[in-house]
Amino acid sequence: MAAILKCKSVIGGSGWNSRFFSTSKQRLSQSYKLVVVGGGAGGCSVAAKFSSLLPKNHVAIIEPNDTHYYQPMWTMVGGGMKKLEQSGRPMSEVLPKNARWIKERASKFFPKENRLVTASGEEINYDYLVIAMGLQLDYNKIKGLPEAFNTPGVCSNYSTLYVGNTLESLKNFKEGNAIFTFPNTPVKCAGAPQKAMYISEEYLRKHNKRDKANVMFNTSLGAIFGVKKYADALEKVVKKRNIAVNFRHELVEVKPDTKEAVFRLLDDPAGATKTFKYEMLHVTPPMSSPALLRANKELTNEAGYLEIDKSTLQHVRFPNIFGIGDCTSLPTSKTAAAIAGQNKIVFDNLRFLMDGKKLSQKYDGYTSCPLVTGYSKCILAEFDYDGKPLETLPINQAKERMTSFFMKKELMPLLYWKLMLNGWWNGPSTIRKILHLGTGR
Ligand code: FAD
Ligand code: UQ1
To answer: Nearest residue CA, atom 3 of ligand 2?
Structure first.
């Protein structure tokens, strides 16, 4: 009965979706010109662009969540500069009005048959598909988590559930190690683990607890940042602020009873571990491509990411599938800023494909990481696939600046909610070209 009612309500609409038909007594099948899986930063911005191009309800977005979060704000939430509520908006308000929202989880892809099935068993057919499913957080790969988040001092800016613990841990900090971790997997916003640390370090200084704190960055990586220009700047910051950096340390266990964190020493051939006492432990979890995507070997590369061409963003085996954002194989740092650089490429190339034209737009790997170094300063890293800085402003952005901090804290959220999610922000490349006129960058 529910199925029949649903069918009626959509038949009442116009356009593509009127090709609804029942494949069995229980199961409905829907068809769309374009289906977007995921209504996060990438899915929402691409769907907005196509919804203005195509007639009403020719685009469908599959997204199960009620709330859309502006995740970059969680760094500020952790430091008490913003409230968690400010980072979320109802999904119904951010998804394009011209598109149909299928409030479900996609559960299986059949790319050879141009269809997928949702968790409720509904079949969705498409002519074109954009996959924008983000990353999965794997807290449970660390022994003792997530349970230890219910104990003093354990926090994580990466989840709405635990970001509130960060300020709480700082307020309650008495004496001991404040440890900030970086996992042995790709992560979203690779700068965010150390942003949490710089803000916390300044908090402890401001509240006269710094001399009681031993601040340390225990990272699985072998360098503080992947791009030399910004790594050099950050090395000076940690030195100046007396922060210890322990490279090739991977968090493997949290023992809340004894307030100990166990790290695997990645360069030790025998796989030895080292245990640190903590008063505060900020965890950046291991992350992976969503399990459902990883399960489909036709769509993914060996590491489980959606395998797309790094220039055109078209799938390497299925020409009518494109990808955007964190769930893809693109060899660049996974950020919302990168998505701003990708969404016009996906839009143009997919539009060209629909019109039988050549895919001529090429993504250069642009990404950006506003490396907040405290409550008023920021290093604004911007770079491409080759790790070559691609700075928007005609100043040295590797320098800690209040202007960069203001952009990160106040301007970026506006840019995101007002422009990017409506499909009107394609990254700063045009601004950069104007500001760098004559310099060839
Ligand atoms: P997401 O925005 O995560 O969206 C994925 C969507 O897919 C979700 O809505 C999810 O519900 C949906 N989905 C998942 N599985 C399914 C399924 N089976 N069916 C249907 N839908 C599904 N970026 C910056 O540019 N600058 C920053 O300063 C910055 N700081 C950050 C700080 C933190 C603490 C964090 C966590 C992130 C930060 N980022 C920053 C990174 C940025 O938020 C992400 O790169 C960006 O949100 C990725 O967008 P996405 O669309 O790929 O994934
Ligand atoms: C950006 O475009 C963007 O997406 C909206 C972000 O995400 C929040 C960013 O953090 C940054 C830095 C950019 C890049 C934009 C400019 C103006 C440098």
So the answer is: 337
Query: Distance between CA atoms of 362 and 429, rounded to whole angstroms?
Result: 13
Binding site membership of 63 for ligand 1 (Cβ less than 6 Å)? yes
Specify the residue for token string 């809340």: 256
| Closest ligand relative to 291 C-alpha | 1
Q: Is the CB of 412 under 6 A from ligand 2?
A: yes
| Residue 84, number of CB atoms within 10 A of its CB | 14
Report pLDDT digits (tens) over 259-292. 999 999 999 999 999 999 999 999 999 999 999 9
B/e letters for 334-368, b = 16+ CB within 10 Å, e = fewer, are bbbbbbbbbbbbbbbbbbebbeeeebebebbbbbb
CA nearest ligand 1 atom 32, residue:
72
pLDDT in tens, 102-147: 999 999 999 999 999 999 999 999 999 999 999 999 999 999 999 9
To the query of whether residue 189 is one of the catalytic residues in this protein, the response is yes
CB of 398 closer than 6 angstroms to any ligand 1 atom: no
Reported as type and span, the H/E element at residue 310 is: none
Active site residue 378: no
> Which of 283, 224, 222, 226 shows the shortest CA–CA distance to 249?
222
pTM (2 decimals)?
Answer: 0.94
